[in-house]
Amino acid sequence: MRFFVQLTNGQKKEMFRKKQPFRYRPPSPTIGDAADAAHPKWKLGVIQLKKKSLATVLSILLAAVTLTACGNGNGNGNSNTSASPSAAPTDAAAATQAAGGEKAELTYAIWDSNQEKGIRTIADEFESQNPDIKVNIEVTGWSDYWTMLEAGATGGSLPDVFWMHSNEIYRYANNGMLLDLTDRIGKSEDVKLENYPEGLNQIYNLGGKQYAVPKDFDTIGLWYNKTLFDQAGVKYPDESWTWDDLHSAAKALTKDGVYGFLAPMHNQEGYYNFVYQNGGTIITADKKSGYDDPKTIEALDYYVSFVRDGLSPEVYGDAERADLLKNGKAAMGLFGSWNLSGFTENEFMAKNFDVAVLPKKAAQASIYNGLGNAVDAKTKHPEEAWKFVEYLSSKTGQERQAELGVAISAYKGAADKWVDSNKTFNIKAFVDMVSYGVIRPYSNTTAVWEDKAYEALKPAFSGKVSVEEAARNAAKVMNESLAEEK
Amino acid sequence: MNHTVKRKIGAKTWNEWSWGWFLIAPTMIGLIVLNFIPIIQTAYLSFFKSGDFGRGNIYIGWENYRKLIHDPQVWHAVGNTLLYTLLVVPVSIAIAMLVAVLLNGKLAGRSLYRTIYFIPMVAAPAAVTMVWRWMYNQHYGLINHGLSKLGLPAVNWTTDPQVAMLSIAVIGIWSVIGYNMVLLLAGLQEIPKDFYEASDIDGASRVRQFFVITLPLVSPTLFFVVVTTIIQAMQVFDVIYMMIDVSNPAYDHTVSLVYLFYNNSFKYSNKGYGSAVVMVLLALIMIITFFQMRAQKKWVNYM
User: Fold this and answer.
1) Is B125's pLDDT higher than 90?
2) Within the 288-347 window of chain A, which residues sit less than 8 Å (CB to CB) from chain B?
3) Looking at CB atoms within 10 Å, which of A225, B70, B80, B139 has the fewest?
């Protein structure tokens, strides 16, 4: 019997973990010891009952029971369970604080395990300067991170300090989940907003209030396989490259089962860059879709032409994309700076690849974005939490982050130290692109219209409809979605 | 009932009752807290435009349902969910039945086979899907590699809208066979050996024995297996979630109701609409299960 109970769980999503059909199977019809099962009275328990009405009720029951796997995610049940890991340390910390007035324990939630080690080092240095504060770092993968945070926000148990993203800042700041840092920044010696890129400050500024301090930034680079370039006798990409250079290089490199370029169905590491290089836009200043802008359509058409002309495979998944590069099946691809540690660890990539700035058309452009460190509005240790954020955002903290190769620090000048942290690739390209970087397009409900646009653009990638038609559809659904925005 | 109450209830009866309630209490509490309350909440929430973080829900009546009827994706999802169920349930149960019958006979290394068949059930679906994704990989997956060795063209297992659902169904079938097999096997072991001995004497063939003795006598277990497999199949989510992104061209042909619910509730933070989507699934499962209960007298044979 135990055997089964263990086996039915293990579903990927937490809300599904309760899916156990056994719960309502009273007299086990099957397993168990032979004597018990052989008893003539077992007959699938309740189901065999003769009364019609009862059978009906039971059928509803059976259906209902199994359904809760889905339904539960809506209620508070799910929220509480997923929030508990983050809540526990905080509560424990509060308890110790109250009892002995000793150490304040902070929870710092992040989503990138590649950065954990470096951040731990910085946190240790912070702890040694502030012996009365202890920092616990909690890593949760990107998509689970937001589920966790949402649950924490709903249940009132957010981590003390956590990463924020342009896609989500609006909801959190607008609902009072984040501590307003404006006054603290104003009084701080170490944190001055003019030291961070203005575009990043703006992401985390709502109605004149600053809700997070920029931690780092990322840009998109053109990764290329040097060996394949040498074999084909093509010059390596550099800052002089135009769209035509990219296209002709892709053409020369496409042979023997190798694709010259990767033009995946991806926005940030794909067509967004080309749209802005062409002077187009994804979202206008007055929050309308830019997909029907002729310049945007032109850029999309150029991008899709790689797939149409057979210079790029039709590729959709994130993992598949990188694998094509890592297996020498594609000579060039657009990938963000956050892939750096993964690419450095891959022997094939380290040996054969390098990175350059993106090519240009009307202008140079690379999509850039940056995380911010935010503080829970209801944290039990606002002062300590701010102290930690202040340290992370200070010149020292930011330079340490760069030196350790954790991420490209947002602090003015600190990025140069990051360039020295990796000798394998020419990562200076990522920093060079900041001067003409375009902030990843966002609004209050980015996640919704990004997916709608994907759905509308897909048929153009597989060649089912023209790029223009797909782009116009994308503009339509995106505008509908934006209209519903508060 | 009234009749019973009027009479004086003896201490023994009370004792029996309290024991009875005590023994079913864990299940009852679990059902109520984990199942009934959330169902009611979900139904309730489906009439609201949900605010962020569970606050500021606005009552909008049937608006979510009205929107749902005009949402082509919901209809895709209903179709996909039913198609998946139709693909997985008959095939997986047929194979499970076959394997169970074979393993019920005298066979060397029987318990080893049972374990092997059960392993897919033990593995975490997410991990299983990752492995399958590798095998399905368009460029260097095991399956396409094998096809190319045979001189056949490569198939886009996960991105071709015509094929992706089949690829997913194969994983679903493969995962559930072991579980159904063990249930059916236990059902088979209930069947008294005398029937087979008697029919042997009468000269019945193995095939005839299967249809005349095995199938009718295992039907209660089979019924249970059919009902639960259908319900489980209707709730398909993790495999599709792991394999098919919104940007995948096969998305419209594979998205299931639960996936749609997940996207709306968690990705787009529209829990009200997500709840409405999942109520459709509840209704579907209820209807199907109801008809199965009605049909059971026609074919289920309780000894």
Assistant:
1) no
2) 313-314, 316-320, 323-324, 327, 329
3) B70
Instruction: Say if the Cβ atoms of B241 and A13 lie within 8 Å.
Output: yes
Q: By C-alpha distance, which of A273, A295, A283 is closest to A218? A: A273
Provide, as residue numbers in chain B, all residues whose Cβ is less than 8 Å from the Cβ of A458.
Answer: 247-249, 251
Is B68 inside any structural domain?
Answer: no
Q: Nearest by CB to A72, from B34, B122, B228: name it.
A: B34
Q: How confident is the model at residue A10 (pLDDT cuts 50, 70, 90)?
A: very low
B27 is a domain residue? no
Residues of A in contact with B232 (CB under 8 A): 19, 21, 66
The span from the CA of A430 to the CA of B39, in Å, is 50
Higher pLDDT, A19 or A378: A378
Total tally of structural domains belonging to chain B: 1
Q: What does the pLDDT average to over A93-121? A: 76
- Per-residue pLDDT of B219-231, as tens digits, reads 999 999 999 999 9
pLDDT at residue A21, rounded to an integer:
40
* Long-range contacts from A410-414, C-beta under 8 angstroms, 24+ separation: A410/A196, A410/A197, A410/A200, A410/A214, A410/A215, A410/A216, A410/A217, A410/A370, A411/A195, A411/A196, A412/A195, A412/A196
The minimum CA-CA distance between B232 and chain A, rounded to whole Å, is 8
Residue pair A128/A134 in contact by the 8 Å Cβ criterion: no
Please check whether residue A19 touches B, CB under 8 A. Answer: yes
Q: What angle do CA A393, A394, A399 make, to 5 degrees?
A: 95
Q: Which residues of A touch B186 (CB under 8 A)?
A: 29-31, 37
pLDDT at A48: 42
Contact A454 B159 (CB under 8 A): no
Nearest CA in chain B to A327: B140
A25, A51, A67, A465: best to mutate for the B interface, most B CBs within 10 A: A67
Cα separation of A292 and B275, whole Å?
33
Answer yes or no: pTM beyond 0.80: no
Tokens 């940056």 sit on residue: A370
Q: What is residue A52's predicted lDDT score, i.e. its pLDDT?
A: 47
CB A357 within 8 A of CB A366: yes
State the DSSP H helix or E strand holding residue A409, giving kind and residue range, or none if neither.
strand A408-409
The answer to whether residue A35 neighbours chain B at the CB level (below 8 Å) is: no
pLDDT at A242 over 90: yes
Tell me if B246 and A72 make a contact (CB, 8 A cut-off).
no
- CATH number, residue B279: 1.10.3720.10
Contact A327 B289 (CB under 8 A): no
- Which 3-state string (H, E, C) describes A215-268? CEEECEEEEEEHHHHHHHCCCCCCCCCEHHHHHHHHHHHCECCEECCCCCCCHH
CB within 8 Å: A16 and B275: no
With respect to residue B265, please indicate whether it lies within any of the assigned structural domains: yes
Domain encompassing residue B223: 76-299
Cβ <8 Å between A13 and B186: no
* 3-state SS, residue A8: helix
In a domain, B147, yes or no: yes
For residue A60, the chain B residues in CB contact (below 8 A) are: 286, 289-290
- Asked if residue A386 has pLDDT above 60, the reply is yes
Q: How far is CA A290 from the centre of its chain?
A: 23
3-state secondary structure A128-160: HHCCCEEEEEEECCHHHHHHHHHHHHHHCCCCC
Q: What is the DSSP letter of A193?
A: G
Q: Does A58 touch chain B (CB under 8 A)?
A: yes
Residue B268 gets the label, from left (phi > 0), alpha (psi -120 to 50) or beta, of alpha
Residues A263-300 as b/e (b if ≥16 CB within 10 A, e otherwise) read bbbbbbbbbbbbbbbbbbbbbeeeebbbbbbebbbbbb
